[in-house]
Write a structure and sequence with these properties.
The chain contains twelve helices and eleven strands. The protein is an alpha/beta fold. It has two domains: about 25-55 and about 275-365, Aspartate Aminotransferase, domain 1, CATH 3.90.1150.10; about 60-270, Type I PLP-dependent aspartate aminotransferase-like (Major domain) (Aspartate Aminotransferase, domain 2), CATH 3.40.640.10. The strands form two sheets. It has a seven-stranded mixed β-sheet with strand order 2-8-7-6-5-3-4, sandwiched between helices. Strands 1-10-11-9 form a four-stranded mixed β-sheet, with helices on both faces. Strand 5 (about 165-170), helix 7 (about 180-190) and strand 6 (about 195-200) form a beta-alpha-beta unit. It starts with about 30 loop residues before the first helix and ends with a helix.
Length: about 375
């Protein structure tokens, strides 16, 4: 017999699970469908996951549909067509790809980090760096940001100097903070290991870090097609890497990691630069409105979201109040190193943004 309520199936083998995964894991945003069902709301504003509310470009859809006809064959393991499209879009760099930037991060860590090696992470930030490093049995060094969420270059260099890999996110998730390129240059010159610069949201900012790739052999810049290019469901990540690292990355990567349909859709999206630029301008306009019209204090943001201070409410409390009115935002309570009175609000469709501003204003007035 497989098991019963007192002795569930497989319970004797739970002891085999690594301690790291007995609890915890990545914290996902609330599902729109669940919120709508719970509160009897027909239409919910989805502003929790930093998604692009627009559909993929026509070129992306066309290329993805065409590629589906050949989905009976394995994809090109080198992703030559996609890296060629990336080179046409960005210029002459060395590229690698993965299943989302998460997949690139995992492969980079697997390529470089032995058990016990140090991995430095600037907090608060995207939690997956820490999860991926611990999965490789790394020693994680956490480096707190300044009270305004900027990075002290001196402190970062001091604590990350001997790390095998260090992670910095700019614009940072969830704060939106942009690190000046000059500060990144100083850090690259001061540390002995590799710096992984997460640029998932860089299209929405005015800071360009790519010239640093020509100057430093210890820099990796991670990018994604999920945000500015509207392909979150396709899970296409890529990175600019120093040429010396490429063959080792490919040895460590899972075989046939990125599927053909996603890769071809990404090629189509890269060919439609105008659509991406139109969306970026839209985000920047609404980001400014969020910060101007929302009564809550906010942080300057270079991303497609804004982080708001909800004190005296906790982030969870404010997220619940908004959800009851049909607006889903991300409580930042799950981000290590961040006080529990912040929410992160993505720029969505115009009606979603208007609803958020109306509801948050109503909540703040009623609580005044």
């Amino acid at each position: 017999m497989a098991g019963n309520d007192e002795n569930p199936a497989g319970s004797r083998y739970i002891r085999l699970i690594r301690n790291l995964y007995r609890s915890g894991g990545y914290v996902f945003a609330a599902k729109a469908e669940d919120i709508a069902r719970q509160h009897g709301i027909s239409r919910v504003a989805r502003l929790a996951s930093n998604e692009n509310p627009w559909s993929p470009s026509a070129a992306a859809v066309r290329e993805g549909h065409e590629a589906l006809k050949g989905a009976n064959r394995y994809p090109d393991e080198s992703m030559a067509m996609l890296t060629g499209a990336l080179a046409r879009f960005h210029g002459d760099y060395s590229f690698v790809t993965g299943v989302g930037m998460d997949g690139v991060i995992e492969t980079i860590i697997r390529t470089l980090v032995n058990p016990g090696d140090r991995v430095a992470i600037s907090l608060p930030t995207f939690s997956f760096y820490r999860l991926a490093a611990l999965a490789q049995a790394a020693e994680v060094v956490e480096i707190p940001r300044e009270p305004d969420f900027s990075v002290s270059t001196g402190r970062f260099i001091e604590l990350a100097r001997d790390a095998k890999v260090s992670f910095l996110c700019t614009p940072n998730n969830p704060t939106g903070t942009v690190i000046p390129a000059a500060d990144i240059r100083q850090i690259l010159s001061g540390i002995r290991g590799i710096l992984f610069l997460d640029n998932a949201y860089v299209e929405f900012s005015d800071t360009d870090y790519l010239p640093l790739m020509k100057e430093y052999d210890n820099l990796i810049i991670g990018r994604t097609m999920s945000k500015a290019f509207a392909l979150a469901g396709a899970r296409v990540g890529y990175a600019f890497i120093p040429g010396w690292l490429a063959p080792f990355y490919h040895r460590a990567a899972t075989p046939f990691t990125l599927n053909t349909v996603s890769a071809r859709a990404a090629i189509g999206a890269l060919e439609d630069r105008t659509e991406m630029e139109r969306y970026v301008a839209y985000v920047q306009q609404w980001r400014d409105r969020f910060r101007t019209e929302c009564p809550l204090p906010s942080c300057p943001s270079g991303a497609n979201f804004v982080m708001f201070d909800t004190a005296p409410f906790s982030g969870d409390e404010m997220a619940l109040l908004l959800a009851e009115k049909g607006v889903i935002v991300r409580s930042c309570a799950s981000f290590p190193g961040l006080p529990d009175h912040y929410i992160r609000v993505s720029v969505g469709d115009a009606w979603e943004n208007e609803l958020f501003l109306a509801v948050i204003t109503e909540i703040c007035r009623s609580c005044a």
